[in-house]
Amino acid sequence: MAKVIEESLDFATKQSLLMAESLKDQPDRLPQTIDEEGNLVTCNSAWWVSGFFPGVLWYLCENNPTDSLKYWATNYTKRVEDQQFTTDNHDVGFMIFCSFGNAYRLTGNQKYKEVIHNAAKSLITRFNPTIGCIRSWDYASWSAQWQYPVIIDNMMNLELLEWSAKAFNDTTFSHVARTHANTTMKNHFRNDFSSFHVVSYDTITGTVEKKNTAQGYSDDSAWARGQGWGLYGYTMMFRETGNKTYLERAKHIADFIINHPNLPEDKIPYWDFNAPDIPDALRDASAGAIMCSALIELSAYVPELKSKEYLVVAETQLRSLSAAPYITDSGNNVNFILKHSVGHMPNGSEIDVPLSYADYYYVEALIRMKNLLETNEQK
User: Cα–Cα distances in Å, from 175 out to 180, 189, 204, 243, 334?
Assistant: First the structure.
């Protein structure tokens, strides 16, 4: 495993430096995916994935702190700085904490800390105390079916708030995060601990009005990346709060995933656990990477037998993602690291392509597994 990690991080570094160089003359662009012709698709700072590539560079710099990695990590982090004041969507956590959060963690630069503070203040403007959740999407023609939509993805943005509560000694942030997590735990999950994608609330009464799975196969299906967001989110909430209710929820979600009869042998899930064309359905490397990173962390919070069970799956996922068909060839795939992710199948967008967040959680999982192995060696 150590050899797989070392080789994979070296490869990820080469690809990411090539990616960084490729956009050096476009100072307001960040990598997103590829188009149908295989060309690089970029985004500006306002798109929800903007913080992932800077985060990849910081993780790689943590692993191998070279001048070039630090230069490009700093450069690309600067490109998303304006999102600290974003109040029109819930993704400010993804945008700022994956980039500036890692930047501050590794450098201690107080300017980065100020940006994180502003982002946390921006995010909580979207909290409705009657409902008990941060609103995900604002009103648009495509979202008109929901009064107050809250998506499972939103669990990922709570880390920004929990961290900020401690860093700035402000319990307002943690109150919002915990209330959101508790409301989501109450309303997003089915009896088998699979999750809906979208739960919408009545804006007057605060009660649930709809439960849907917009990016999955059907409202009743288990959209793979959504299950990953839930697993990661509640694992993180236990780490930040010590509340064992969150730990129990994370364990239940993990058990749903790893024991599901439709989880393939290589442990990289189909884009939806209930896709009708399984076993010919497309896989989602991004969901696999998110689950892998979460399982590695969760393994540290459970008894030894359960820990080993989670780590066996996570190791299989890492080995799978680090080999064909998921890993790309050097210098190909317009310099993304992984292939075969699925963005929004029902919408026909980003189907079987590389995605910047797949790369982010894959590199994070590699770093987490490396740290775990080194810790075990020292015991």
Answer: 8, 21, 21, 13, 42
In a domain, residue 206? The reply is no
Residues of the chain with pLDDT under 50: none
Question: At 232, which helix (H) or strand (E)?
Answer: helix 224-241
- What CATH number corresponds to the domain at position 253? 1.50.10.10
How far apart CA 378 and CA 3 sit, in angstroms, is 18
Query: Where would I find the beta strands (DSSP E) of the chain?
Result: 30-34, 40-43, 127-128, 133-134, 149-151, 198-201, 208-212, 341-344, 349-353
Q: Which of 88, 138, 153, 284 is catalytic?
A: 153
Q: What pLDDT shows up at residue 332?
A: 83
The structure tokens 């648009």 sit at 140
The structural domain count of the chain equals 1
* Catalytic residue status for 153: yes
Q: Is 280 among the catalytic positions? A: no
Name the strand (E) or helix (H) holding 312.
helix 304-321
Q: Which is the catalytic residue, given 91, 272, 284, 359? A: 91
Place of tokens 């191998």: 64
Assigned domain for 61 exists: yes
Rounded CA separation 143/215 (Å): 13
Q: pLDDT tens digits, residue range 143-153?
A: 899 999 999 99
The whole-number pLDDT of residue 14 equals 97
Give the pLDDT of residue 213: 97
Contacts of 209 (CB under 8 A, 6+ apart): 146, 147, 200, 201, 202
Residue 69 lies in domain: 2-125+223-378
Query: H-helix or E-strand containing 371?
Result: helix 356-378
